[in-house]
Amino acid sequence: MRRTSLLIAASVGLAAATAGAQAQVVALPDVNIEVASPSTPAAPAAPATPAVPAGESYISNTPSSQTTISAKTIARTASPNVADVLQRAAPGVDIQGTSGNTFQPDVVYHGFLASPIAGTPQGLAVYQNGIRVNEAFGDNMNWDEIPTLAIASMRLVSNDPAYGLNALGGALDVRMKNGFNFKGGKLDVSGGSYGRIQAGMEYGETSGHYAFYGALEGVHDEGFRLNNTTSLKRFYGDLGYRNEGNEVHFALGLADNNFAGTGPTPVQMLQKSWSSVYTTPQTTEHQMGMASLTGKFDLAPSWTLTTAAYVRRYLQNTVDGNTTNVEACPTDPSLLCYQNGDGTYSPANGTNGQQLANPFPPNAVLGEIDRTSVRTTSLGGNFLLSNDGSLFGHKNHAAFGASYDFGLTSFNATAQIGMIDPNLLVSGGGPYLGPTGNPVTDGPVDVHTVNRYLGVNAFDAFDVSDKLTLTGGARFNFASISLFDQLGGNITGEHQYAHVNPLVGLTYKITPELQAYASFAEANRAPTPLELGCANPQQPCILASFLVADPNLQQVVTQTVEAGLRGENDFGAWGALNWKAGAYRTLSINDIMNLPAPNQQGFGYFANVGDTLREGLDAQIRYRIKQVTLGISYAYINATFLNSLALASNSPSADANGLIYVVPGDQIPMIPRNRFNISADWDINSKARVGADVLFVGAQRYAGDASNQQPLLPAYFTVGVNGSYKITDKIEVYARAENLLNHRYYTYGTYFETDALTPVATFTNAEMATPGQPLSVYGGVRMTF
Q1: What share of the chain is helix, strand, coil (3-state, %, to 5)?
Q2: pTM of the entire structure?
Q3: Would 24 be classed as within a structural domain?
């Protein structure tokens, strides 16, 4: 199976607006969070008391679902992965192992993805201090670039137009630490299974009106699978200034990371060895640097102006060993030919346009080393003008803002022919391919892309009474995407998309401890340059390395209706409880999927597949009594197609033309219907703590089984335990064990052509999957100063 090359491009930050108290990058999402405070002091919004579990309140005036995760929760997870924290703490979040690398997971929320895999249709927007960090070329999300040590809090919200482009299923707002909210120093060193070594240090200081914060984090992990080494180096720093009513921050983020992605492997190989890998090498290295300057200014007693500007540079190189359609010509084995996928052959040309001679021995199984490079520069700015005043004698919060973001990407790709040995290692050393295939589907690529994103928004929250708050507004998104083929091919094109996304919602305090909410919201996603450059089924691409054509795609628009209840109760000596439960229904219009090219292993294209529906329920309960905290969360989702479709697929159910036939009601692959998590933490005393958690993920369809005719990817569960002990007030040791029962399970499943490696390897089962990590034990020490 020719796997997707990891990462492409750099983030075009889509910062909207925020009325947050910190002077971080302006982001409109916070407007909705703070937009509707209680109208009078006599009717507070049930603030959390010290008895509320973890000190976090579920009561909020946001008319939609949200989950807030504190720095304390992140520290207890003791993981260098943001995704691990989300999976443990947020209902409705699932993690998939499409890349096969622990540090590059797919995060799924309400059936929409934020994935590092270029070629995965994305549906979640991710912000770091208000800057949108989805990569510009494919909207993919590099979770490895965010140092968990430096995170102050995270908030996961459902569909909300305030978060701009790509927030189809929701958005994640990550807030980083600064010297005003973190003081002192901490050193954290840990290690454990599969060669894991991790170290992090942070320090914050305030001096008068000035503050400094810096965090440096490094991770090295050999991985439990073959050729799966990861090395992470990341830094985050913040310089701040504030006086009465004004605050300014300069922040800098840096990352230099290297990965060996392993991806799915045929289940027949995994049954023999859980660490096996299907074709190597699969490596990615990238560097990122982002600087931002933000300010918050009180213009008058009720008026606040927040502004932000940023610049970001992103560099990436990938090396991907794959199978190939190149082989010795049937009529003249001294030459190389290209199998077009329909039984016909065309000359395999070199970069000079001449047919390549065959330098390989007879019966050699040929492979291909695909290399890509990405160079992206992005910059942008935004402002928000907000007013906390009154309207018709009632408390009112209004916000008006705009943002503009620009991104320039240079994308290059080459393909070098080599051989595949019995260990499925693809060696290079052969000739490089020029334009090859009929029509051309392979060869070198040199493309420049330009993203221009404009957003204008206005939102208002009006307290009708001390119990009822109405929220409304809209955001206008405009996207202009240009592609320029530097080799004179068919990729050049211009595309523009515009949409107005409304929001209407309400919150109602049934009692000070119980609140109801309901809302309707729209969001949109413009096709990315990667998708637009690979949208012709007659000219499929090696996803996502080789772009070949530039047909148009329709933008995706979602319409979400949701409603729910949330509450919290303090029972005194009997403990404290907070809980929430909500239902949602999201209709996606003109959904985009990546589809494999019929009978062309490793090739595919992007296409609109009609409308899809995701409807579900999230529920979460946290109960604390004395030193014990219990947590339970459950998520149900029914994700289905709404149209009759004939889709290309590698599924064994595909007909002779490589097509499967979807009918309305068929399940969308790789979205589990049921997910359940239970956790327990016991603070034994002021020094010792122990905890445990159980995660259950239900069965789901293999990617490619959209017609629902094949067996399901099995359900699985894992058990984890953790604990810590304070040797002194400044020194703490901790440990955790993951997958305690050493259960074998799969985190992703798809299909491949069983004869792709004949005669090197022979398979009879088309299923391939990503194995879950076996029992792993880690331990470390934290020192504060």
Answers
A1: 5, 55, 40
A2: 0.88
A3: no
> In 3-state terms, what secondary structure has residue 30?
helix
> Pick the residue with more confidence: 37 or 322?
322
What domain count does the chain have?
Answer: 1
Judge whether 350 and 433 are in contact, CB under 8 Å: yes
In a domain? residue 597 = yes
* Cα–Cα distance for residue pair 216/237, rounded to 1 Å: 9
**Which of 608, 543, 613, 622 has its CA nearest to residue 584?**
613
What does residue 24 show for φ and ψ, rounded to 5 degrees? -90, -175
DSSP 705: -
598: tokens are: 């019929």
The domain that contains 129 carries what CATH number? 2.40.170.20
- Of 597, 41, 571, 6, which is closest to residue 263 (Cα–Cα)? 6
Cβ pair 125, 137 in contact under 8 A: no
Between strands 170-176 and 124-128, the pairing is parallel
Q: Does residue 45 belong to any structural domain of this protein? A: yes
pLDDT at residue 754 tops 90: no
Dihedral of alpha carbons 301, 304, 305, 311, sign? positive
Round to whole Å and give the CA distance between 650 and 669: 13
Cα three-residue angle 18-165-314, rounded to 5 degrees? 90
- Paired with 314 in beta bridges are 288, 376
> Using an 8 Å Cβ cutoff, are 178 and 90 in contact?
no
Using alpha carbons only, what angle is made at residue 145 by residues 142 and 151, rounded to the nearest 5 degrees?
A: 115
Pick the closest to residue 296 from 346, 345, 347, 245 (CA basis): 245
CB under 8 Å to 672, separation ≥6 — which residues? 94, 637, 697, 698, 699, 700, 715
- Whether the bond between 759 and the residue before it is cis, its omega within 30 degrees of 0, is yes
Higher pLDDT, 194 or 548: 194
Distance CA 646, CA 640 (A): 15
Domain with 645, as residue range(s), is: 29-784
Helix (H) or strand (E) holding 179: none
> Would residue 749 count as lying in a domain?
yes
Please give the Cα distance from 599 to 590 (Å, whole number).
26
Which DSSP letter does residue 352 get? Answer: T
In whole angstroms, how far apart are CA 385 and each of 20, 245, 456? 12, 15, 12
**Tens-place pLDDT, residues 94-144:** 999 888 888 989 999 999 999 988 778 889 999 988 888 988 888 889 999
Structure confidence at residue 443 (pLDDT): 79
Report the amino acid identity of residue 226. Answer: L
Two structure tokens written together for 409: 């990407």
Mean residue pLDDT across the chain: 87
Distance CA 43, CA 25 (A): 32
